[in-house]
Amino acid sequence: MAEVVKMPKMSDTMTEGVIAKWHKKVGDKVNSGDLLAEVETDKATMDFESYQDGTLLYIGPKEGEAVPVDAVIAVLGEEGEDFQALLSGGDAAPAKEEKSEAKAEETAAPADSTPTVTAEDLGVTVITMPLLSDTMKEGVIAQWNFKVGDTIKSDDAIADVETDKATMEVTAYADGTLLYVGLEAGEAAKVNDIIAIVGPAGTDVTPLLNQPASTPKAEAKEEKAPEASTTSAPAATASTSSNDDSRVKASPLARKIAKEKGINLNEVKGSADGGRIVKKDVENFVPAAKSESAPAQESAKSETKTISLPTFVGEEKYTESNVSQMRKTIARRLGESLFTAPHFYLTVSIDMDNAIAARTQINEVAPVKVSFNDMVIKAVAVALKQHPAVNSSWQGDKIRFNQHTNIGVAMAVEDGLLVPVVRFADGKTLSHISAEVKDFAGKAKSKKLTPADWEGSTFTVSNLGMFGIDEFTSIINSPDGAILSVGAIQQIPVVKNGAVVPGNVMKLTLGCDHRVVDGATGAQFLQTLKGLLEAPIRLLA
């Protein structure tokens, strides 16, 4: 009897999986233990083995498609067995009935129904934009490593894709010729959009690309066409003037700059392909001569002026750059956090005299130099064990109290911010924490962090003290329930034993999600943290 194969839950945070590659096709015999497919989870690409024997009757998702956990992805059974009832939640019917029903369906099918063409029909493999991180919505092609017509192998990295977290490689997953490339380098595509097609040389993939689903796009283009025709009428009328430059081939930016400077594009020579005028052509343009009317107008104006002022000519300039995938995600996630979680902040001052002395002694014997930030991370992890309410997250209809302490460490990179995670920080030594943080910093700068490095934090530490910032507030790194902002150590006068003496003070600001952390709870956590940092010997116990 036929049985369904469902998308397995391969990690604790997995909600869906992407079929990276099918190793079997419909009609193949499958034995228990055979490699059925490769599934890309939120953390890695893993092999998915069959737990049943039988013939592969049905494959649901195509390669590159995302499927929720427990959704049906395939059906195994006897050859010719009816499995349609299983897809709708019923039981499978005998094979003979399937054949008779299939004939009836063929008879009843309209004569004018449009057949759909699949990749299997053409013998090609469709490569879609993969889901490379849990927050990824789209990817930008950083560069293509092959061009149309090149021969590639299944393990070749055909392109580098810039995600919201890093630049990662996209593998072909098939041998053959690169038949189609869907977008240029620098262009973005949504997850699961077709980016390339691989197959036998000379295969015509036009029928596959011109599926009925593309009709709305064609209609949208047709709707825009009348607009172009209607706007061309005034342009044609205006072009009768000898000064009109609307039909000169120029980039939008070059045309804008020319308009601001009062330059007629008819007088500018273009340096791009086909004589097209670009920005540098306009900026480097020097008028041959001024019109005779200009001096007359200037002299008329000077006669009416009673005060002579020096003329200062300035030029408005600006640059624009496309928003990176990382910056898009930062904007989206921090916006969601700030406007969803009710934030409140608590600040405490820490006497760092003992911490400074302890760090000096530790670094005399430690295999890795320990920073004040490493001491804060360790102290935070220890304090969270005593205050589990701060080590929590809002889950909508419940609150999750984490019993483990995974500390996210905010790191500034060229395109924005990454938060790799020091896992189980409460049980690690200061040297261990320091080594991990240094390793993460190197990977972050070179964009070598993997999803496993930045997922799973329960609390986040953000330190701007090294930039001389005395005190600041941070937006919570969702789904964490709190975040700690660490300021610089300041040398200021303090009162000790009734006398004013020099002191070293560092301010810590705790940002809390009021849905899970109350004011008193946050204050008690800060008091514990203050005690640990002012008596750092307790961190070594």
TrEMBL record:
<feature type="region of interest" description="Disordered">
    <location>
        <begin position="91"/>
        <end position="116"/>
    </location>
</feature>
<dbReference type="InterPro" id="IPR000089">
    <property type="entry name" value="Biotin_lipoyl"/>
</dbReference>
<keyword id="KW-0012">Acyltransferase</keyword>
<dbReference type="InterPro" id="IPR003016">
    <property type="entry name" value="2-oxoA_DH_lipoyl-BS"/>
</dbReference>
<feature type="domain" description="Lipoyl-binding">
    <location>
        <begin position="2"/>
        <end position="77"/>
    </location>
</feature>
<comment type="similarity">
    <text>Belongs to the 2-oxoacid dehydrogenase family.</text>
</comment>
<dbReference type="Pfam" id="PF00198">
    <property type="entry name" value="2-oxoacid_dh"/>
</dbReference>
<dbReference type="InterPro" id="IPR011053">
    <property type="entry name" value="Single_hybrid_motif"/>
</dbReference>
<feature type="domain" description="Lipoyl-binding">
    <location>
        <begin position="124"/>
        <end position="199"/>
    </location>
</feature>
<keyword id="KW-0808">Transferase</keyword>
<dbReference type="InterPro" id="IPR023213">
    <property type="entry name" value="CAT-like_dom_sf"/>
</dbReference>
<feature type="domain" description="Peripheral subunit-binding (PSBD)">
    <location>
        <begin position="249"/>
        <end position="286"/>
    </location>
</feature>
<dbReference type="Pfam" id="PF02817">
    <property type="entry name" value="E3_binding"/>
</dbReference>
<protein>
    <recommendedName>
        <fullName>Dihydrolipoamide acetyltransferase component of pyruvate dehydrogenase complex</fullName>
        <ecNumber>2.3.1.-</ecNumber>
    </recommendedName>
</protein>
<dbReference type="InterPro" id="IPR045257">
    <property type="entry name" value="E2/Pdx1"/>
</dbReference>
<feature type="compositionally biased region" description="Low complexity">
    <location>
        <begin position="227"/>
        <end position="242"/>
    </location>
</feature>
<dbReference type="InterPro" id="IPR036625">
    <property type="entry name" value="E3-bd_dom_sf"/>
</dbReference>
<dbReference type="Pfam" id="PF00364">
    <property type="entry name" value="Biotin_lipoyl"/>
</dbReference>
<dbReference type="InterPro" id="IPR004167">
    <property type="entry name" value="PSBD"/>
</dbReference>
<feature type="compositionally biased region" description="Basic and acidic residues">
    <location>
        <begin position="94"/>
        <end position="106"/>
    </location>
</feature>
<feature type="region of interest" description="Disordered">
    <location>
        <begin position="207"/>
        <end position="251"/>
    </location>
</feature>
<keyword id="KW-0450">Lipoyl</keyword>
<dbReference type="InterPro" id="IPR001078">
    <property type="entry name" value="2-oxoacid_DH_actylTfrase"/>
</dbReference>
